[in-house]
What we know:
By secondary structure, this protein is of the alpha+beta class. Helix content is 14%, strand content 14%.
Amino acid sequence: MSNRWNISEWLEQEIRVRDVACVYCGVAFTTPPVNRKSAASWEHIINDAKFITRENIALCRVGCNASNG
Ligand SMILES: [Zn+2]
């Protein structure tokens, strides 16, 4: 998973520990992902990349990410 949002490493680790499942559908992430749509991706709660805080970013499956179609 690429980190294109400049999320700091400590925050990324914190979110990965917190969000073990998709924030939308609750399906747990697996390593490796079952398929591309099951891979974890970053989701901004407020869709503004300026807000890189633990409250505004979460992990969801690629298939559930609004910005992936
Ligand atoms: Zn989901």
